[in-house]
Amino acid sequence: MQHITGNSFFFHSQSSIGGYKRGDQLLLFDTGNDDSSVKKAIRAFDNIKVIAVFNTHSHADHCGGNAYLSKHFAMPIYAPYLETSFIENPILEPTYLFSASPPVSLQNKFLMAKPSTVPYVISDESPISISFDDAQIDIQPVALRGHSPNQFGYITPDSVAYLGDALISSEMIEKHPLIFTFDVKEHIESLHRLKMVKAEGYVIAHGGYFTDITDIIHSNLEALDKTQNLILSTIGNGKSTFDELHRKIAYTYQLTENIGQYWLNRSVIHAHVKYLLEIEMINFDIDHGVICFSK
Ligand SMILES: [Zn+2]
Predict the structure, then answer these.
(1) CA 132 to CA 157: how far, in whole Å?
(2) Distance CA 66, CA 42 (A)
(3) Å from CA of 206 to ligand 1 middle
(4) Which residue among 34, 93, 149, 254 is least packed, with the fewest CB closer than 10 Å?
(5) Taking the chain (295 residues) in consecutive chunks of 10 residues, what is each chunk's mean pLDDT?
């Protein structure tokens, strides 16, 4: 793990893991993809004892190491309300994406982490007190809904904010312009809210550590806006089905999709369509099994 400042650390990988260490005791913010990700993150420290885990949200690349840690340390897991249901019952993730019992091809480690039990449910932004051998500290949760149903970030006493996937780095957006979103309205609100979250530094899971996130917030807002405009221009003065919108987005963003990526992208398109319906930019009609969207 790399040292940031004070007692705060992070392990830079495909999905970064945060840490707050006092003596031989360590708190983790998210746990990476699987056993090996979290093992790599903590092996920088000799004889370390993980005393608690804070999950930002339930996506498998953020809670994949929970089960390993639960087995090896007597430690509690904290996670936000709703996200806890998915962490404890990973089958819910491919089930909501597919909207029925999911095919075996969707039941993989990218969509389903090993299940873990979450005894501490976070439902608001009240500080959470954690006891180390030598001190009592407060972790400050910050509601950052939108990317997932109820994502929270966490700020340590060193003023380092671990933001999960509330922000995606500008480089990642270049490569994957269809950024994952569950609720576009809440996602946009969280991005504006992040402008007010004052911290010495910010760890974003897919991107690393930053001391200034102004430009990244702007890139994320732009990415959501670009997809909204693409959907609206595809509909034009006519009508479009979900398949037509998906096809246009796949061509424009040059998406290569396996079955998992197909359903993830489809879910993002559903989120954008829901938002456009909500702000009354589009309407829908249903004819013989086909739902069509128009302005
Ligand atoms: Zn995520």
Answers:
(1) 13
(2) 13
(3) 9
(4) 254
(5) 95 91 97 94 92 98 97 95 98 97 96 97 98 97 98 98 96 95 98 96 93 97 98 97 98 96 98 98 97 98
Best CATH choice for the domain 2-221 from the list 3.40.50.2300, 3.60.15.10, 3.40.50.300, 2.60.40.10: 3.60.15.10
Strands 77-80 and 49-54: parallel
Question: How far is it, in rounded angstroms, from Cα 181 to Cα 173?
Answer: 13
Distance CA 248, CA 69 (A): 43
Which residues have C-beta under 5 Å from ligand 1, the single-atom ion? 59, 165
Compute, in angstroms, the gap from residue 148 CA to the centroid of ligand 1. 7
CATH class of this structure's domain 230-294: mainly alpha
Place of tokens 């190491």: 65
CA of 239 to the centre of ligand 1 (A): 32
Q: Where are the alpha helices (DSSP H) in the chain?
A: 35-42, 60-63, 66-72, 83-88, 92-98, 170-175, 184-194, 214-235, 242-252, 259-278
Residue with tokens 């509690």: 76
- Which residues does residue 201 pair with via DSSP β-bridges, in sequence order? 160
Tokens representing residue 213 in the block? 């996130």
Tokens of 162: 């671990």
- Say which amino acid occupies 278: E
Domains of the chain, residue spans: 2-221, 230-294
